[in-house]
C-alpha cells in the first residue's frame, strides 16, 4: 500500500505492486483509522492486585513491575517459568528480537506464537517434502499463468481480495479454477468446478486424486525417478483410495474427482494451493503432504508456472515464522537443536552456545501448561490475543488467569490485555520502520510516516529496556535498521538466508526474495528449478492415510462445526471491530446454517442460536444459507464474549506441527428461547 | 511371551488387518500367510489392469512387513489343528497361534457346463491377479472376447477388454444386467451405454456348453445360437473359501459363521472378508471387509472391549470411462415410499430414488447425475434428505447462489451491494455520480468500489453507462 501523510493525518492508497496489483480491500483502506482511535492506548496500565482494576501508570513503574515479577518467578521456579508469546503480525525485526530476548535475556526455552495456529501444518509439510518452507516457491504472478489452479480450503475472495486479480488474470487466459471447500464460498462460486467434501476428508480426496492419476497413467515417471524419493510407498498407499470409496467418505462425486485429476494432469502448468481449511486439523500436516505428493507425482514443483504453495494468513505470516519465534527455531529458519546453528547464532549474539536453551513446546501446549505444576508462571505477550484466537478458549483464559504475571504489549486493550497485570502501549505500523516477508518469500519495507503519540514505545524499545534491566548478556538495539543488519548476519547460511538483503535493495527491486546470501548476488524468486534443499537434492514423498477427525459427530453432538473469516474483519477482531466502516459491513457474529437444517431445528433467519460442544458454547444470530452443507455449521472467529467461536473448537493438535483442530468438531445447535 | 496372531490369507482383508494391528501398540507377533505368490494387491484395480492403463506394480497395496509383522507369500495353509493351536502349511511347517484369523476370501464359480472340466486355456475366470495375467495372455493377439455373466465384475471385465480394442459380447441368463442392483429400466439404459463403449449384450439366455481349441472358443446358448470368440471370461459369481474352516469343524453355512466380534464357533478363531458370514450375509465387497478387519484389530488389541461389527448399507459403484453407475439399498421394493425418477435415455441418464421417513431407502443412478456424491453419503449415513428433492437429482447445479449480476442496473435496489470487498452499494455509486463523478474510474476512486479483488469493475462500468444514459451530463458542473 501507498501511504500519504497530510498534516499529520495518514492516508492509505493502493499501490501498483506485483503482488496486489493496485488492489486494496476495506481493511487496508481503513487501516489508518486506528492510528488516532479513541481506544488507542497511550499510557502503560497496571493492576495493583488480582481482581483489581487496571490503572494508568508511568513507564518506570510499569517496567519495574514487569522486571520484579520476572525476577520473582525466575527465583522461585527457574528460567523456564517465564514464557513469551509472539505474533505473526510483528515485523521481522521484532520477531527476531523477541526470539533473541527469550533465549538470551530471559534464558527460557518457552517461546512460541500465534502463527502456530496459522501456517504451521503447511510449514512442517513443506519442510518434510521440500526441505524448506516458503509459502509460495514462485512469485504470486505465476498464478495468473497456471492453466489449472486448485485451491484447497482457501477463500481469498474474502480473506485476501487483491489476490483475486491474479485469479481473474488466470481465468481470462483460459485457465481453469477448481476449489475444494465444504462451503460454497465467494471463491468457490467463481470456480469452474467446486468440490464440496465433508469437513475433515481433504486428505482422502487428495489420495483419490493421486489414485486416479496412477490408474490413468498420468504420473510423470521421469520426474519421479530423477527428482524424488519414496514414491513406491505412496503408490501402494493410494492404491487403497479408489474414487468410489472416497466418494462415500467425502461426498465428492467420482466424476468430479476424475475431472479434477485430469485438469491437473493434462495442463501445461498447474498449481495447487492450500490454506487454513485444509491445514487447521489434527491431521493438517498429512493433509498438506497428500497434496504435495500429488504435485510431485505429476512433476509440478520446480516446473515453470507450476507447483505447490500455501496462502499466508497473517500480515507477516512468512517472515514471522523464520527468525526464532517458533519454539524449536533460531533465526534464518535454523533448528535450535542443530549444534552448528546454535554455534552460528550464539556467535552473532555474543554469548556461549551452551547458554542457549533447547526447544520449547508448541503454542497450545504452552498456553495449556501456564500456571500448571511445572509450567510457566509468567507470560509476556506481543502482538497476539489468545483469549479470542486460541482453541478451547475458555480453558486458555483460565490458564492466563492463573498466572503470577501476565504482561501484554498492544496498542489497543484486547481481550487478553484486559486480563493482564501490566499492559504496555506500543507503536503501530505507520509509526515504525522495519521489514515484512510476504507469502512469496519477498522481503518488503515498512516505513515510519509519523511520530508515535506521546507515551507510546516501540516493541524494540521495550525489549531493549527489559533486557538491560534484566542484565542480559547481549546487546538489544532499538533501531530497526541496526536490528535488521544483525538479523542478516544471524540468518546467513540458514535456509531463509537474508544475508544479501538490504533495505536499499528492497526499495530498488520491489522487494527481495530469500534465499539471498550475497549482497551482490541474485535473489531467488523461484525455488526448486534445479534441485530441492534436501541432503540429496530430491523432494521426498511421504505416505499418508486418512483418519477420522479427533471428534466425530454422535447422537448428542450430531453436526460438524467449522470456523473461518469474513471479508470485513480480521483475526481476533481487536482492531477491525473498532473501525466503524468495517463494523457497518460486518456488524456481528453469526452462525451459518443450511435452510434444511434450520427448518429441522425450528430456527428462522436472525433467531439467536446456541452452538454447543463438549468444551463450551457460543451464541449468535442464525444466518441461513444454501451454500453450506446441511450437516455442517459455520461461525466466524472474530468476535469475543458470548459469540466467541473458539469457546467451541477442539484443542486436539497435529502430532507434527502442533496445529489445533480449528476446522472440525462435533456440536449441537439449539434455538435460544427469548 | 508376546501374543501370536496368525492371519491366513494375504488379500485385501488380511493385509488390512495386518496394517491395523501394526498401527496399534502392544507386544504381539503377527504372521500373515498368503497362498498367492505376490504382494497384496488391490482387487478393485484389476479391471483397470485389464484395460491396459496400469502395470502390475500399480495394483500393489501398502506393505506391512516389519515391526512385528511377518508376511510369507506362496505358503498355503493345509489344515488347522485347533487342539494344538497350530496351522499346518504346504511346506510342512506348523505355526502356533494364540489367535487365528481366517481371511481366505472367495473363489470364482466355474459353472457346471460341458467343456469346462478341465478348464481350457482360452477360458478364464476373472477373480485374481493370476486370472488377470491369464486373460491378458489369452487376449494378446485376440480380436474378440465373450464374457459369461452380466454382474458387476463381468461388466468391469468386459469394459476392460473393450478398452483394449477387443470386440466383446456379454452373455447374461437374466432379462436385464446386474439384476441384483438394477431395475429393468436402468438395465436397458445400461445396455445402450455399454453398446456405446463397444460391448454387445445377449440377455435372458443361458449357456449350455463350451467348446474350445487352439484357435478359439465357442459358447453354445439355450436358444440354439452359438457365439465364437478368441477367449471366454467367466464371471458367474464367487463362493466363499470355507474348506479349511469346515475341515477344522468350525460352523460353516454359505460362509464361515461369525458373531458381532467376527469370532467363529471357536473363540480363538476369527474370520473376516469374503469368507465370513455375518448375520446371515456374505459381503463380497472391500469396504465391509476393511471394517471387519478394524473390529478384529480393536478386539485383539483390547482398545475397545465393547466394539461390535455393524454392517453399513452396501453401495455398488461402477465407474469407468463412459460409465457412471451407483446402486444402493432396494430401489424396487414396491412398498409405500416417495419415489423420484428421472430418465433421459438418449443421454444415458437414469435416476430412481426411494425415500421413506425423510431417508433414502434405495437409489439407482446411471449416467451424469451430479448429486451422486450427496446421494451416496445421505444413504450411507442415514441422514435426512433435502427439503427440495430436486437437488437430489440436479445436485449442485440447483439451489446454489447465482453469481450473475442483475440484468440491468435499473432493476437493482439501491441497497444492493456492488463491491463486496469495500462494501459499496448501488445507492452509494448513484449519489457519487450525482456529486460529479462521471466515469467508472472516478466512481471507483471516490467510493473504492472495484479496488479490492477487482471482480466488480464491469458492474461499476455498467452502472456508469446506465447513469450516463439515464441522467444526461449537465453542461456545467
**Number of domains as seen in the coordinates of chain A:** 4
Work out the largest interface and the residue count of each chain: A-B, 62 and 50 residues
For the CA atoms, what is the radius of gyration of chain A?
24 Å
Under CATH, the topology of the largest domain in chain B can be stated as FAD/NAD(P)-binding domain
- Characterize the quaternary organization of these chains: heterodimer
Named at the architecture level, the CATH assignment of the largest domain in chain A is 3-Layer(aba) Sandwich
Give the terminus-to-terminus CA distance of chain A. 46 Å
Mass-distribution shape of chain A: globular
According to CATH, what is the topology of the largest domain in chain A? Rossmann fold
- Count every helix of chain A, treating DSSP H or I runs of 4 or more residues as helices: 22
Distance between the termini of chain B: 97 Å
Number of strands of chain A: 27
Strand order of the main beta sheet of chain A, please? Answer: 4-3-17-16-15-5-6
Average pLDDT confidence of chain A is: 95
Strand ordering within the main sheet of chain B: 3-2-1-7-19
Q: How many helices of chain B does DSSP assign?
A: 12
Write down the overall geometry of chain B. globular
CATH architecture of the largest domain in chain B: 3-Layer(bba) Sandwich
In the predicted model, the low-confidence regions of chain A spanning at least 5 consecutive residues are none
Protein name (chain B): FAD/NAD(P)-binding oxidoreductase
Pathway (chain B): Nitrogen metabolism; nitrate reduction (assimilation)
Keywords (chain B): FAD, Flavoprotein, Heme, Iron, Iron-sulfur, Metal-binding, Oxidoreductase
Cofactor (chain B): [4Fe-4S] cluster; FAD; siroheme
Amino acid at each position: 500500500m501507498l501511504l500519504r501523510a497530510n498534516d499529520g493525518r495518514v492516508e492509505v492508497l493502493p499501490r501498483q505492486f506485483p503482488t496486489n496489483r493496485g488492489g486494496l480491500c476495506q481493511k487496508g483502506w481503513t487501516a489508518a483509522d486506528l492510528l488516532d482511535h479513541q481506544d488507542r492506548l497511550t499510557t502503560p496500565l497496571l493492576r495493583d492486585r488480582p481482581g483489581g482494576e487496571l490503572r494508568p501508570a508511568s513507564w518506570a513503574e510499569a517496567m519495574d513491575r514487569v522486571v520484579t515479577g520476572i525476577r520473582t518467578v525466575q527465583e522461585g521456579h527457574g528460567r523456564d517459568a517465564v514464557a513469551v508469546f509472539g505474533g505473526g503480525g510483528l515485523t521481522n525485526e521484532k520477531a527476531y528480537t523477541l526470539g533473541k530476548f527469550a533465549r538470551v535475556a530471559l534464558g527460557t526455552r518457552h517461546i512460541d506464537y500465534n502463527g502456530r495456529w496459522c501456517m504451521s501444518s503447511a510449514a512442517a509439510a513443506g519442510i518434510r517434502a521440500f526441505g524448506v518452507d516458503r509459502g509460495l516457491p514462485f512469485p504470486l504472478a505465476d498464478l495468473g499463468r497456471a492453466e489449472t489452479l486448485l485451491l484447497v480450503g482457501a477463500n481469498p475472495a474474502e480473506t485476501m481480495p487483491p489476490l483475486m486479480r491474479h485469479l481473474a488474470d488466470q481465468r481470462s487466459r483460459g485457465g481453469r479454477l477448481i476449489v475444494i471447500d465444504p462451503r460454497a464460498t465467494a471463491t468457490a462460486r467463481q470456480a469452474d468446478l467446486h468440490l464440496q467434501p465433508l469437513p475433515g476428508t481433504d486428505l482422502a480426496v487428495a489420495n483419490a486424486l493421486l489414485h486416479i492419476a496412477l490408474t490413468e497413467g498420468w504420473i510423470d515417471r521421469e520426474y519421479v525417478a530423477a527428482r524424488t524419493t519414496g514414491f513406491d510407498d505412496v503408490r501402494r498407499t493410494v492404491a487403497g483410495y479408489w474414487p468410489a470409496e472416497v466418494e462415500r467418505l467425502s461426498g465428492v462425486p467420482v466424476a468430479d474427482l476424475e475431472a479434477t485429476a485430469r485438469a491437473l494432469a493434462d495442463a501445461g502448468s498447474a498449481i495447487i494451493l492450500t490454506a487454513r481449511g485444509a491445514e487447521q486439523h489434527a491431521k493438517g500436516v498429512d493433509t498438506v503432504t497428500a497434496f504435495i505428493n500429488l504435485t510431485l507425482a505429476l512433476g509440478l514443483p520446480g516446473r515453470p508456472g507450476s507447483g505447490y504453495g500455501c496462502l499466508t494468513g497473517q500480515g507477516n505470516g512468512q517472515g514471522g515464522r523464520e527468525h526464532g519465534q517458533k519454539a524449536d527455531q533460531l533465526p534464518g529458519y535454523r533448528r535450535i537443536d542443530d549444534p552448528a546453528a546454535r554455534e552460528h547464532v550464539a556467535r552473532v549474539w555474543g554469548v556461549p552456545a551452551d547458554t542457549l536453551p533447547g526447544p520449547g513446546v508448541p503454542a497450545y501446549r504452552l498456553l495449556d501448561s501456564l500456571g500448571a505444576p511445572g509450567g510457566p508462571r509468567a507470560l509476556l505477550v506481543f502482538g497476539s490475543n489468545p483469549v479470542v484466537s486460541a482453541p478451547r478458549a475458555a480453558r486458555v483464559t483460565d490458564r492466563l488467569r492463573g498466572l503470577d504475571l501476565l504482561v501484554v504489549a498492544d496498542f489497543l486493550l484486547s481481550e487478553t490485555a484486559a486480563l493482564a497485570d501490566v499492559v504496555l502501549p506500543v507503536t503501530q505500523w505507520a509509526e515504525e520502520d522495519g521489514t515484512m516477508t510476504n507469502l512469496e518469500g519477498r522481503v518488503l519495507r515498512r516505513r515510519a510516516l509519523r511520530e508515535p503519540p506521546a507515551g507510546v514505545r516501540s516493541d524494540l524499545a521495550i525489549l531493549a529496556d527489559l533486557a538491560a534491566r534484566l542484565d542480559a548478556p547481549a546487546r538489544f538495539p532499538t533501531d530497526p535498521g541496526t536490528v535488521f543488519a544483525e538479523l542478516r548476519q544471524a540468518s546467513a547460511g540458514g535456509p531463509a538466508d537474508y544475508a544479501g538483503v538490504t533495505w536499499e535493495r528492497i526499495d530498488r527491486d520491489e522487494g527481495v526474495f530469500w534465499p539471498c546470501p550475497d549482497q551482490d548476488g541474485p535473489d531467488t524468486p523461484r525455488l526448486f528449478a534445479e534441485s530441492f534443499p534436501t541432503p540429496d537434492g530430491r523432494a521426498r514423498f511421504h505416505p499418508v492415510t486418512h483418519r477420522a477427525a479427533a471428534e466425530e459427530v454422535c447422537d448428542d453432538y450430531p453436526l460438524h462445526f467449522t470456523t473461518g473469516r469474513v471479508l470485513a474483519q480480521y483475526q481476533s477482531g481487536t482492531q477491525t471491530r473498532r473501525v466503524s466502516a468495517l463494523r457497518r459491513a460486518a456488524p456481528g457474529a453469526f452462525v451459518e446454517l443450511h435452510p434444511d437444517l434450520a427448518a429441522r431445528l425450528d430456527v428462522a433467519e436472525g433467531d439467536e442460536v446456541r452452538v454447543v460442544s463438549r468444551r463450551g458454547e457460543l451464541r449468535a444470530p442464525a444466518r441461513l444459507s444454501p451454500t453450506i452443507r446441511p450437516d455442517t455449521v459455520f461461525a466466524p472467529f472474530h468476535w469475543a464474549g458470548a459469540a466467541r467461536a473458539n469457546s467451541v473448537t477442539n484443542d486436539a493438535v497435529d502430532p507434527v506441527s502442533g496445529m489445533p483442530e480449528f476446522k472440525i468438531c462435533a456440536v449441537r445447535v439449539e434455538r435460544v428461547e427469548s | 511371551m508376546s501374543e501370536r496372531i496368525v492371519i491366513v490369507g494375504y488379500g485385501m482383508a488380511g493385509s488390512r488387518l495386518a496394517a491395523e494391528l501394526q498401527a496399534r501398540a502392544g507386544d504381539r507377533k503377527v504372521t500373515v500367510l498368503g497362498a498367492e505368490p505376490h504382494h497384496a494387491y488391490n482387487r478393485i484395480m484389476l479391471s483397470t489392469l485389464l484395460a491396459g492403463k496400469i502395470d502390475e506394480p500399480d495394483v500393489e497395496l501398502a506393505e506391512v512387513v516389519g515391526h512385528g509383522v511377518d508376511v510369507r507369500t506362496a505358503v498355503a495353509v493345509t489344515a488347522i489343528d485347533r487342539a494344538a493351536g497350530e496351522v499346518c502349511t504346504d511346506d510342512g511347517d506348523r505355526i502356533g497361534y494364540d489367535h487365528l484369523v481366517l481371511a481366505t476370501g472367495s473363489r470364482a464359480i466355474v459353472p457346471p457346463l460341458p467343456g469346462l472340466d478341465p478348464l481350457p486355456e482360452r477360458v478364464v475366470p476373472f477373480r485374481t491377479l493370476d486370472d488377470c495375467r491369464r486373460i491378458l495372455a489369452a487376449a494378446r493377439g485376440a480380436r474378440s472376447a465373450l464374457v459369461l455373466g452380466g454382474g458387476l465384475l463381468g461388466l468391469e471385465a468386459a469394459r476392460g477388454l473393450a478398452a483394449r480394442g477387443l470386440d466383446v459380447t456379454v452373455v447374461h441368463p437374466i432379462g436385464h444386467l446386474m439384476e441384483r442392483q438394477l431395475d429393468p429400466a436402468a438395465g436397458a439404459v445400461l445396455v445402450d451405454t455399454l453398446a456405446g463403449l463397444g460391448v454387445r449384450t445377449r440377455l435372458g439366455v443361458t449357456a449350455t456348453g463350451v467348446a474350445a481349441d487352439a484357435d478359439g472358443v465357442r459358447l453354445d446358448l439355450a436358444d440354439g445360437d452359438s457365439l465364437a470368440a478368441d477367449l471366454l471370461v467367466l464371471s458367474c459369481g464367487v463362493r466363499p473359501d470355507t474348506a479349511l474352516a469346515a475341515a477344522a469343524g468350525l460352523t460353516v453355512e454359505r460362509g464361515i459363521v461369525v458373531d458381532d466380534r467376527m469370532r467363529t464357533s471357536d473363540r480363538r478363531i476369527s474370520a473376516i472378508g469374503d469368507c465370513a458370514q455375518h448375520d446371515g450375509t456374505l459381503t463380497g465387497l472391500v469396504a465391509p471387509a476393511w471394517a471387519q478387519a478394524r473390529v478384529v484389530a480393536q478386539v485383539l488389541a483390547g482398545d475397545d472391549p465393547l466394539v461390535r461389527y455393524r454392517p453399513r448399507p452396501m453401495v455398488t459403484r461402477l465407474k469407468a470411462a463412459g460409465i457412471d453407475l451407483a446402486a444402493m439399498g432396494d430401489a424396487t421394493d414396491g412398498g409405500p415410499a416417495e419415489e423420484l425418477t428421472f430418465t433421459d435415455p438418449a443421454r444415458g441418464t437414469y435416476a430412481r430414488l426411494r425415500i421413506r421417513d425423510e431417508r433414502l431407502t434405495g437409489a439407482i443412478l446411471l449416467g451424469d447425475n451430479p448429486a451422486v456424491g450427496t446421494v451416496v453419503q445421505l444413504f450411507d449415513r442415514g441422514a435426512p434428505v433435502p427439503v427440495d428433492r430436486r437437488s437430489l437429482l440436479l445436485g449442485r447445479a440447483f439451489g446454489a447462489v447465482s453469481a450473475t449480476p442483475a440484468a440491468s442496473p435499473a432493476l437493482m435496489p439501491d441497497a444492493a451491494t456492488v463491491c463486496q470487498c469495500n462494501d459499496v452499494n448501488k445507492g452509494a455509486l448513484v449519489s457519487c455520480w450525482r456529486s460529479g463523478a462521471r466515469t467508472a474510474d472516478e466512481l471507483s476512486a471516490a467510493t473504492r468500489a472495484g479496488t479490492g479483488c477487482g471482480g466488480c469493475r464491469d458492474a461499476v462500468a455498467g452502472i456508469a453507462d446506465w447513469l450516463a444514459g439515464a441522467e444526461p451530463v449537465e453542461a456545467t458542473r
